[in-house]
Structure formats: C-alpha cells, structure tokens
Amino acid sequence: MILNRVRLKIAVPAAIVLLSTAVNANSLEEFYKHYKSGHYPQALEALDKLSVEENTLSSKDYLSGLSYSKMQEYDKAAVHFAKAIELKNDSIDLYYEYGQALYAANELRKAREAFKTSAGKKFNETASLYYVAHISQILEEYDTAKDYYMMVLKDKSADSKMKQIATFQVAETLLSIAREKSKEKEDINRRVEKFVLPMMQKSYEMDKSTPLANDVGQRIFELKKEFNLDPDVLANGRRVSPKHYSGYVSQKIKFDDNISLTNEENNIQQSKKESYIFETEAYAKYDFIVKKKFIISPEARFTFTEHGDRSSPEVYQNDAFVMNFDLKNKYEHTYKDKPASMIFDIDHSRTSKDWHTRKKIEHYASSTTFTFGESLSYFEVGDTTFKIKRKNYAGENEAINNHTTSLSGDQTFFLPIQHLLIALFDASFIDNYNNSTTNTNTYLFRLDYIIPEIAPTYTLGFGLAYTLTDTLKQKATRGTEKSFNPSIDLSKELSSNSKISINYDYTKTTSLDTSYAYNKNIFTAEYRFSF
C-alpha cells in the first residue's frame, strides 16, 4: 500500500512543451485545446489530422504518447514514446514519460532503463532514481535497489517526504537482503535488530505526522513480533508493560468498630473498642528483564498506621510501622504452547509497633517468606496459579515465633461480559513452636467479582471470604472457628494516575471462646496516586 501511494504521488508528467518549431503552431491549436480540457480522444484525432514532415514525426509520436498515457492506455503510449526516441525527439521529459508508461504496462526492465536515462538527463532526477530503486526491488535485485535508494537520500534536491519514503524502502531492502543471505535464524535476527529496525525508526522519526509514519510504525511492530525483538514481548509471547517501574502513595482513613488484638500472631481477639485509623503507604517496584525470559522485580513497601483513640491501650498498641523488602522472580516459559511463569519470591518484613503500650513504636517482629509457584493458562477462561510458601516469623516476644507453611491456588475467570471473577483457596499451617498450644491450621476460600467501567471511570468490586480455623490443642475451648467476611469496594479514576475509593468490610467470627468470637465493621476511604 505504501508503494502504490508513493508511485501515484510522484508519477506526475512534466508540462507539455510547445513544439511550435517542430510543427506549425496554428495546426497544434486544436490539439492543445482538447488536451488541456482532458478530451484526449479528440486530441488524438486532431493529431491524426496534422500534416507533418518526416523530421517532425517525433513530435507527433511524443504528443500521442502523452495522450495515450492520460487515457491509461500505457501499451500504446509506450509504442509512441519508443518511436519518438527512435526519431531522436529531444523533449526533456520523454524518457521519464516513457518509463512511466512501461512501468504501468509492467515492462519493468525497460522501464528501469528509461528512468536511468531520465536521471542521467537530470529530469525529475529524484523521482527517476526512486523508480530505478523501486523497480530493482520488485525484480529482487536488492543490492541495486539499495544503491539507488541511497542516491535518493544523498540527492540535495529531494524533499523531506521523498527522503522519508526512501529511508523506509532502504530498510525494506535491507530486510530482503537479510532474508536472502542469512542461513541461521540468529543471523537474520541480528541483521534485523542492528540494521533494519534502526533504519525504519529513522524513517518514522523524520515526520511522525505523515500517513507514511503510521504505516512505518505498524511495520516496526510487525517485525519486532516476527523476529521476537519487541522488548515488551517476552520469549513465551507474554506482553509486559513498556514502563518497567511502578509505584504509588496512598492515604487511607478507616473506621473500625471492633479493633482486633494480635498479642499472639494468627490468634485474633476482639477488643470491643472502636477507633478511626489513619494508614499511610508508599510502594515502589522495578522490573529487570533478562534475556526476555527472566523478570527480577525488587519491591519496597512502607506502611505507617496510627489509631485515633489515644486513651485505650488496647487500641493504640496496634500503632505500627511496617517495612517490606521483596524480591519477586519469574521465569517465563510455555506450557502446552501457552505462556506460563515459574515463580520464586523472597519477602522480608520488619514490624515495629507500640506493643509495650508506651505510645512509642518499637521493634516487634520480623519475618522472611520464601514462595515457589507456577502460573499458567491451563484453562481457556484465565490464568491458574499454584504456590507453596514457607514463612519464618521471629518476634521480640519469643512466644509468638512461628513457622507457617501455606499452599494456595487461584483461578482467574475472564467472563464474556468483560467482568472478572477470581477464586482463591489457601491452606496455612501455623507452628508456634515456642508455644505449641496456640498452633492453628486455617483454610481460606475467597471469591472476588470485579466490574470494570460499571460507569465511566468507576470500578465496582465484591468480595466474599470464608475461613475455617482448626485450633488443634485448643479445640476443647475454642472449637473450630469460622469466619464470614463479605466486602464491597467502589473506586473512581480521577486521572490516569490517581483514584479514590471507598470500601466496606464486614467480619463475623464464631468460636466457643467468646473472646475469639466477634463481629466487626470497617469503613475505608482511600486516595491513591500512582506513578
């Protein structure tokens, strides 16, 4: 499509030269009248009526060729132009017009010679050189094509649009040479990356506003995909964001009508106290992509939490500052010809809180978690992920030290109505090895249903979680605890990098021990700025 547009753009014949010295000017008047009016058959009839001498026949053939070209009868035009050349007509545009007619009649080799002569005579030199290059490209004589395209680029009289076109065609010619001469896939990939794509990018950047630039941009995309050179497409075909960094800062204001106590990790009790909670969070991540197969992502997250109730130790003891330093790693591969990711993560967390109820945040505990997993598209509906985790938790109070082993799996469902459903199952086995009577096994089932664009810029989400806690050695006093947790979240985009959201979260936990049985409601408003 690009070539056709170029040909039509530059295929403009030179103005007709008055040949009053070759034939009687009065006898040409009728011809010119019809020719200029676009009545070419009548112009040809007028020429047939001319009585010319032998030394002026070349002019008649020249004018006949022009008329037949206007009528798009290129084979007849070529015959008359050839006669005019044979009769040594000296019209400056004769070889260019002859080349045009031959090109349109698909007489490519003859057309190329005509354009070479036209270029040698310095008539419409840039376009003539371009045609020589283009015809050589069609004839698969790529080295010749490249040489003539380079002549166009060196031509000082060539305008910027012609140079943009020629630059693109140099790239296409280099691609053809690479396909022709490269025996190994690695070699052609190297040639495309080192020579072809830079030349195409140069063409694109010459003038991004032209229609050609759109076609060149699409061609660059196609070649990157074909030769696996798109930096944002991994070896298994999975596309990643061209922006390798991400992060956000957020401010949450919560109201919790029953603050939870966590004196012993993973054994949650109620305080029967309510409070506003102010939570500030900052998060940053960068993705390092190695050989299009490995994604190494260091992450950092800082969360500061303060409670509005400053008079109840049961409440403000939960003031905390948490630092998370994570290293997320993925190996991208394929499973049954579909993209898949092998997961290996290391997460380290340090928690400081007011655990002495002195209104002073002090180091409370630290943990390190190792995660192994696999994410794949086993089902057609969406991604399936399996993980196994090992968490080592160490506190200032050794009674809360524990090891947690977790097995989890989640399934994403991309629904036909553009909604998203995520199902999660997690089983966690908690060994408080210095206080084994508090060991628990928990089993979590969760569904999240997300409706993007429920209204322009609004996203609505519903969550439903159900947790069973096997209290093991405490079963006689606590039994098997059950927790029911529905939630709803509504967010609105304020701009491309900021949003606000509101959330309601309800929890009902049942237990034989009333201190572990509770209901609670949490209302949250959040502002988040992403970068």
Short description:
By secondary structure, this protein is α+β, with helices and mostly antiparallel strands. It is about 35% helix and about 40% strand. A hairpin with a 2-residue loop joins β15 and β16 (about 500-510).
Taking the alpha carbons of the first and last residues, their distance comes to: 40 Å
Strand order in space, largest sheet: 1-4-6-7-8-9-10-11-12-13-14-15-16-17
Sheet with the most strands, sense and barrel status: 14 strands, antiparallel, barrel
Number of domains: 2
- Tell how many strands the DSSP assignment holds: 17
**Helical fraction:** 25-40%
The CATH architecture category of the largest domain equals: Beta Barrel
Here the CATH topology of the largest domain equals Porin
Number of helices: 14
Q: Which value, in Å, is the CA radius of gyration?
A: 39 Å
Mean pLDDT: 90
The CATH superfamily of the largest domain turns out to be monomeric porin ompg
Beta content: 35-45%
- Provide the structure class: alpha+beta
Low-confidence parts lasting 5 or more residues at pLDDT below 50? 1-23
Q: Give the CA-based shape.
A: elongated
- By CATH reckoning, the class of the largest domain would read Mainly Beta
Describe it.
Helices cover 33% and strands 40% of the residues. With 531 residues, the chain is of the alpha+beta class. The strands form 2 sheets. It has a 14-stranded antiparallel beta barrel with strand order 1-4-6-7-8-9-10-11-12-13-14-15-16-17. The protein has a two-stranded antiparallel sheet with strand order 2-3. 24% of the residues are buried.
